[in-house]
Structures are given as C-alpha cells and as structure tokens.
Amino acid sequence: AEYIAMTLFVIIGCGCAMGIAKEPGSAWILQVSLTFGFAITSLAYSVGAYSGGQINCAVTLGLVIVGQLNFVQGILNFIAQMLGSMTGAYILCMIFPKDMDKTGGLGSNGISEGFSKRNAFIGEAMMTCLLVFVVLETAVNPNSAS
C-alpha cells in the first residue's frame, strides 16, 4: 500500500509541477500546492486501512519513535516508500520528454536566490516536524478520536 501510494503521489504531484511550473499568467504555485495537498489526503484515506497511509518517511519514523509502529514494519514501510518514489520518478521519465519538464528536474525544488542551504535545511526540518506533529496529534492521539 505504501509503495502504490508513494508511486501515485510522485506521479500526481511532481507530474503536475512538471507540466505547469513557471507558466506565465498561471497560478501554478497554487495549482501544484493544491495538487499535492489533495493527492496526499486522498491517498492517505485510500491506503490508510492497509498501511496507515503514512506516505512519508518522516511520518513513518515518527510513528516508530512514539511506539505506534513496530521497528520492522517501519523499515518495510520505508523501503516501500523509497521504491515507490523511484518508480513514480521512472514513470514520469517515461511520460515527459526531458525538454517538456518545466521544472528542469522531475518536479524537484530548488533554493531560491537569497536563501542559503542552511536556510533551506532549517525550513525543511521545521515543516517536516510540523507534518509529523500534525499526524501524531490527529491520526494517532487517542484524545483526538471523536
């Protein structure tokens, strides 16, 4: 389930970015953001009953650390997520000719001018912590059950 979800997540999210990034007159940042958001939500609901719908290695690690996922299952989920992301990227390479990729790198992000690698690392670390915190507080905290 994690493999399929990660494969689809990469194809949907990065594929959207590859098709519209930097398009003049478009709200491409909003479109790509919404695409990733709707994709992760629908995929988490779709595979949640099978694997927990983590679709993110940091979330998997967080669940292992707090004891909500055993170590062996965490490793297996991690492997499935990595293989799924590589499969998704491979499929995108088959879909998009290199000169048609508007991101220039399979939907990958870059560091904007004026920001250092340190700035980007800290921002990425903080937003990853926020994601893990939200998952832990909403999906697995017994106090959040309705």
From TrEMBL:
Offer an example of a GO molecular function term for this protein: water channel activity
Q: Which GO terms describe its cellular component?
A: plasma membrane
UniProt membrane topology term: Multi-pass membrane protein
Q: Please name the InterPro entries in this protein's record.
A: Aquaporin-like, Aquaporin_transptr, MIP
Q: Of which family is this protein a member?
A: Belongs to the MIP/aquaporin (TC 1.A.8) family.
The organism encoding this protein is: Strombidinopsis acuminata
Q: Where are the transmembrane segments?
A: 29-48, 78-97
This protein's name: Aquaporin
Cite a single Pfam family from the UniProt record: MIP
Q: Which key words are in the record? A: Membrane, Transmembrane, Transmembrane helix, Transport
Query: Where in or outside the cell?
Result: Membrane
**PANTHER family according to UniProt:** AQUAPORIN TRANSPORTER, MIP17260P
Name the domain of life this protein comes from: Eukaryota
List the signal peptide residues: none
